[in-house]
């Protein structure tokens, strides 16, 4: 069973770029924090009921045909990549992209496809402009894109959405698996309570990093409401825009935002 292929090790690529992480567009501290917590990330998510199930739902909601070429944007330690691999074991290729060399090194070590396996590859890069690092066999178009807990983190979501549309094959789907609470007072209140009383204390205990968990709470509060994000997608030319819910405490808080590139 061969390990997933990489374009050289991410750590090597990153060190060649003169930094631990590749994140040219600013807000580097977010990525530095992900680098720092990479080792603990999977353990923390295991304490979050529904985390992996919900990623699987978003992967399934793409409804991809056999032999698809799939892009996992902001793949982190590969939990979303694993959801794709489990849902589409017959995919032709799955490319994971993340700006944190620490997170992506972990993904590349942890994921070993089983059986007749897709080609796997992990690439360090900025999700705002993936085409800059997706070359050769990893070049677009893709039959499906999953971006789980990513769009909220990019500094310029409009530029990101504009750059993602042409990466999709005509008619191909994209799923943004993301927190969004702005449209609902109940969801905002529940998010604040869970974040302040459970996520932040646990996160700080495991990582000794308060900034990261404060950033998580505030970035979720700041992010578009469901209606605004759907409108943002339509403005950028995406079609069939719709949103599906999760269950558990994440109901009304985490969503699958689904859309497609127009066929013509
Ligand atoms: C919360 S993790 C999600 C990881 C994975 N998708 C999952 O569902 O578990 C968010 C990831 O987004 C990455 N990220 C944030 N901004 C990014 C950017 N501009 N380009 C690429 N990756 C980015 C971080 O490094 C981090 O690994």
What does this protein look like?
The protein is α/β, with parallel strands linked by helices and 264 residues long. The protein is built from nine helices and eight strands. Strand 2 (69-73), helix 4 (79-87) and strand 3 form a beta-alpha-beta unit. Helix 1 runs antiparallel to helix 5 and helix 3 (51-60) crosses helix 4. The longest helix has 23 residues, at 185-207. The chain binds S-adenosylmethionine. S-adenosylmethionine binds next to helix 2 and helix 4.
Principal-axis shape: globular
Radius of gyration from CA coordinates:
17 Å
Number of domain units? 1
Output the CATH topology.
Answer: Rossmann fold
Strand content: 15-25%
The bound ligands are:
S-adenosylmethionine
Strand order of the largest sheet: 1-4-3-2-5-6-8-7
Count of discrete alpha- or pi-helical segments spanning 4 or more residues = 9
> What proportion of the residues is helical, as a percent range?
40-55%
Oligomer: single chain
CATH architecture label name = 3-Layer(aba) Sandwich
The CATH superfamily is identified as Vaccinia Virus protein VP39
- List segments where confidence is low: pLDDT < 50 over at least 5 consecutive residues: 1-26
Q: State the end-to-end distance.
A: 40 Å
Q: What does the main sheet amount to?
A: 8 strands, mixed
CATH class: Alpha Beta
* Secondary structure category: alpha/beta
Q: Please count the beta strands (DSSP E, at least 2 residues each).
A: 8
Order of helices and strands: EHHHEHEHEEHEHHHEE
